[in-house]
């Protein structure tokens, strides 16, 4: 027997032991994102790059499951209503910020005060503008008060990230964030990458992945190459046609719904028959297959996101009936009359392609359809400005709060920013739902509004768009309906 | 000479002023930066407030006068996208661009002289024909496509080099090569043509008759004669790279330089950052122009400086 054998055996045993004893989470991953955060302050900007990073560093009182269900986050349980304008949150005990500051009522009060302070000019205020303030009841209890009855308050608290009050005044939230989340900020090479490391003391147990690096790669082709070359583990916004050329991919119905808003007071589109024809003229199934290779779901008669509260699941998608569409246009005496479809290009997945396909279908009905692809700020002016409403305008509508209030007040309410109708009855129903605290009644009101919108053909809902992600072989992850890239939900298999 | 330099500097400053003024006007004409900067959900009050905060509510002339006053102190305002002084963003990204351009153009210069010279020795020969064809191909290929091809071959298939980003010397190789190819082709063709021209001149025949070896003739006489046109073409390439190529190359390779930043500033309607970038690039371009003239004069004192 070789004298070396026991040594070899010992070394092998030692190595094996080391491998087995090594923490399972000792795996770094790289995520390529298209835009670099403009700041890492979690309360000031409304910025996709910032969210991609900070969703892992900070936490909120309410969270969502990957399928969109609202659940307690830093709150110990769902909030209770003290009165019409006061919601009480019990907080999770024993949670600490990464710098050692305790998470408690003071932190929540300070976070609310900071984000609603007009001096801070938070861009996120649109999600939180109903909030009046927050008061401490005891160390682990906070009352959040609203300006009027606000049933969406729990959803709003899913948006607001909790900051450490001490560090917020003395530290650098914009450059070196400190939260309670599963990942801690490590470093940021501006222009190139940003690194987070696992928070071993995380209250819900240390995450599996030890380290995550975000690379900023604006060009989609380069992101795709990086994934194929094995440099990245996850890329966002993968085009449907590339699903076959990446090691792995995952798709999930996302927050965006493409919809065309019709000008119900405009010359041609004020006729309900014309609007009905516009809905019947489009072969949505063919578009979903041909354009999105199946990674889009035909919207069922409404532009409300199916995962949002208030969605009316009983509506049927509009049928494809070109004959009937042509007949309706004839009946309305609209043959040969002009209709302008306004849109933009390059902002949302296949936006231009959708606009052009719809215009072609509409042209088949006998209308003289023109498309007008506008530069983005001009488009925003068409969408939300004070000028005359377009006959038809394309929107990829997103719903971050996953509550129908957003789509209702934005597109259906006569005073909504992107609305093209003057229906006072519909507006009253939306106002009533906005302050209705009885959940079932509120759901009922939204269902009614959607039914009305569908019957009157106020919009042409197209697709619930899927979010498609390219992944490396070793990454194990199911994407979320709210498009958050939660690294603690990811695992690496070697 | 001093008078010349001063005159050129004044001219240059006027050019820089003109360019930045044009950018000032154009950025205020194409779309509303407030609409681009704020999220769709922003309220009218937020928009008005934001517009006032960045001075866009003032009359254009007043904005322009303030702008002129500010650029005199290199104050371009805060980048709307990054919320910090635009000039700081430029100062952070400019060295990355200069590194990329030096590597790219340096490669082109170093390779083009021997390649052009070898091709010129036997015009019409095999080496010459290959060089000319490759040169034409190099001039014809768009850099965007070339960059993607390099990524596909050397990063994705062979896995020799990283696809994108910045950090190690390996990250520099592909973007620098992509940037080098067009100038390399142009330099090589130029060196080749000038060499052929020079080699046919009587003084070469005299020199050879006197028994000088070809390498020595090339080194001592010919190269010196083609140096001035070479210098002016490289100055031109430097300017083109600074104001054009880098935008494409940096975007394809996610190289955090001024070109990529310019693209992002335009996409985000960040007019203050755009103004700062254009100012710095215009300033550099003018400076390079003056430096080229001075160096050319130093090499060839017969040159008229006008």
Structure write-up:
Chain A: GO terms for molecular function: peptide transmembrane transporter activity. The complex is a heterodimer of chains A (494) and B (306). Chain A folds into 3 domains: 26-35 and 177-251 and 468-492, 3-Layer(aba) Sandwich (D-Maltodextrin-Binding Protein, domain 2), CATH 3.40.190.10; 48-170, Alpha-Beta Complex (Dipeptide-binding Protein, domain 1); 253-466, Dipeptide-binding Protein, Domain 3 (Dipeptide-binding Protein, domain 3, Roll). Helix content of chain A is 31%, strand content 22%. Chain A has helices at residues 4-21, 48-57, 105-116, 125-128, 153-157, 165-170, 220-228, 272-280, 284-292, 322-331, 351-363, 376-384, 404-412, 424-434, 439-455, and strands at residues 28-33, 62-64, 70-72, 80-83, 86-90, 131-138, 141-146, 183-189, 193-198, 211-216, 234-235, 248-262, 296-298, 338-343, 368-373, 392-398, 459-471, 475-476, 491-492. In chain A, a hairpin with a 5-residue loop joins strand 2 and strand 3. In chain A, helix 13 (404-412) packs parallel to helix 15 (439-455) and helix 14 runs antiparallel to helix 15 (439-455). The longest helix of chain A is centred in the N-terminal third of the chain and has 18 residues, at 4-21. Chain A is globular, with a radius of gyration of 25 Å. Chain B has 306 residues and is mainly alpha-helical. Chain B has a domain at 93-269: MetI-like (MetI-like fold). Helices cover 78% and strands 0% of the residues of chain B. Chain B has 12 helices and no strands. Chain B has helices at 2-29, 33-37, 44-53, 60-72, 86-121, 126-140, 143-157, 169-199, 202-209, 214-252, 258-267, 271-299. The longest helix of chain B is centred in the last third of the chain and has 39 residues, at 214-252. Classes of the chains: A alpha+beta (494), B mainly alpha (306). Chain A binds chain B through residues 35, 38-39, 45-46, 121, 123, 125-127, 129, 174, 189-193, 215-219, 221-222, 225-226, 228-231, 375-378, 380-381, 384, 417, and chain B through 30-33, 35-36, 38-43, 46, 49-50, 53, 81-83, 92-93, 96, 148, 151-152, 155-156, 159, 162-167, 251-254, 256, 260-261, 263-264, 269.
């Amino acid at each position: 027997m070789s004298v070396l054998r026991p040594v070899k055996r010992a070394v092998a045993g030692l190595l094996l032991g080391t491998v087995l004893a090594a923490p399972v989470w000792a795996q770094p991953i790289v995520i390529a994102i298209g835009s670099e955060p403009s700041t890492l302050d979690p309360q000031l900007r409304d910025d996709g790059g910032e969210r991609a990073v900070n969703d892992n560093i900070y936490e909120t009182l309410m969270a969502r499951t990957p399928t969109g269900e609202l659940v307690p986050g830093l709150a110990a349980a769902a909030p209770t209503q003290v009165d019409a304008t006061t919601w009480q949150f019990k907080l999770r005990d024993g949670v600490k910020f990464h710098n050692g500051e305790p998470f408690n009522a003071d932190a929540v009060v300070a976070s609310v005060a900071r984000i609603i302070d007009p001096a801070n000019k938070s861009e996120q205020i649109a999600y939180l503008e109903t909030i009046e303030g927050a008061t401490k009841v005891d160390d682990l209890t906070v009352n959040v008060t609203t300006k009027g009855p606000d049933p969406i308050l729990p959803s709003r608290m899913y948006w607001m990230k909790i900051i450490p009050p001490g560090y917020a005044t003395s530290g650098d939230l914009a450059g070196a964030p400190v939260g309670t989340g599963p990942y801690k900020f490590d470093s940021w090479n501006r222009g190139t990458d940003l690194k987070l490391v696992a928070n071993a003391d995380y209250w819900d147990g240390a995450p599996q992945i030890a380290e995550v690096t975000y690379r900023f790669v604006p060009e989609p082709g380069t992101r795709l190459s990086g994934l194929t070359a094995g440099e990245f583990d996850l890329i966002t916004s993968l085009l449907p046609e590339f699903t076959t050329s990446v090691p792995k991919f995952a798709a999930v119905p996302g927050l965006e719904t493409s919809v065309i808003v019709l000008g119900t007071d405009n010359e041609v589109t004020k006729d309900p028959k014309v609007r009905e024809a516009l809905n019947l003229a489009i072969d949505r199934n063919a578009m979903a297959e041909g354009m999105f290779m199946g990674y889009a779901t035909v919207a069922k008669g409404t532009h409300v996101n199916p995962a949002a509260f208030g969605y009316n699941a009983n509506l049927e998608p509009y049928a494809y009936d070109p004959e009937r569409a042509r007949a309706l246009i004839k009946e309305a005496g609209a043959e040969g009359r002009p209709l302008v479809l306004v849109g933009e290009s390059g902002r949302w997945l296949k936006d231009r392609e959708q606009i052009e396909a719809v215009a072609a279908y509409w042209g088949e009905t006998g209308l003289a359809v023109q498309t007008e692809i506008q530069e983005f700020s001009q488009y925003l002016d068409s969408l939300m400005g004070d000028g005359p409403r377009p006959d038809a305008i394309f929107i990829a509508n997103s719903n971050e709060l996953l509550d129908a209030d957003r789509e209702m007040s934005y597109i259906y309410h006569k005073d909504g920013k992107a609305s093209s109708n003057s229906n006072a009855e519909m507006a009253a129903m939306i106002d009533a739902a906005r302050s209705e605290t009885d959940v079932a009644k509120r759901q009922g009101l939204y269902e009614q509004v959607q039914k009305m919108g569908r019957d009157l053909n106020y919009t042409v809902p197209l697709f619930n768009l899927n979010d498609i992600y390219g992944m490396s072989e070793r990454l194990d992850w199911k994407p979320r309906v709210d498009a958050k890239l939660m690294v603690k939900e990811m695992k690496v298999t070697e | 000479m001093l008078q010349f330099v001063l005159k050129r500097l004044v001219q240059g400053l006027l050019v820089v002023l003109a360019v930045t003024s044009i950018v000032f006007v154009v950025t205020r004409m194409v779309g509303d930066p407030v609409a681009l900067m704020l999220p769709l959900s922003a309220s009218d009050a937020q928009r008005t407030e934001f517009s006032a905060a960045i001075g866009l509510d003032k009359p254009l002339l007043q904005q322009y006068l303030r702008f002129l006053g500010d650029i005199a102190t290199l104050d371009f305002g805060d980048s709307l996208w990054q919320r910090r002084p635009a000039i700081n963003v430029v100062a952070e990204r400019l060295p990355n661009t200069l590194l990329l351009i030096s590597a790219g153009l340096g490669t082109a210069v170093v390779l083009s002289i021997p390649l052009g010279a070898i091709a010129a020795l036997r015009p019409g020969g095999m080496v010459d024909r290959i060089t000319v064809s490759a040169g034409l191909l190099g001039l014809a290929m768009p850099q965007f496509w070339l960059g993607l091809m390099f990524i596909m071959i050397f990063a994705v298939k062979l896995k020799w080099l990283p696809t994108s980003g910045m950090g190690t010397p390996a990250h520099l190789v592909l973007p620098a090569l992509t940037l080098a190819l067009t100038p390399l082709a142009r330099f090589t063709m130029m060196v080749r043509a000038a060499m052929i021209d020079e080699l046919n001149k009587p003084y070469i025949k005299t020199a050879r008759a006197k028994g000088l070896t070809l390498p020595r003739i090339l080194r001592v006489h010919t190269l010196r004669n083609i140096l001035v046109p070479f210098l002016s073409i490289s100055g031109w390439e430097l300017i083109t790279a600074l104001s054009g190529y880098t935008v494409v190359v940096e975007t394809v390779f996610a190289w955090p330089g001024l070109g990529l930043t310019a693209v992002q500033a335009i996409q985000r309607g960040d007019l203050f950052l755009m103004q700062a970038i254009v100012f710095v690039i215009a300033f550099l371009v003018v400076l390079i122009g003056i430096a080229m003239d001075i160096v050319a004069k130093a090499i060839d004192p017969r040159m008229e400086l006008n």
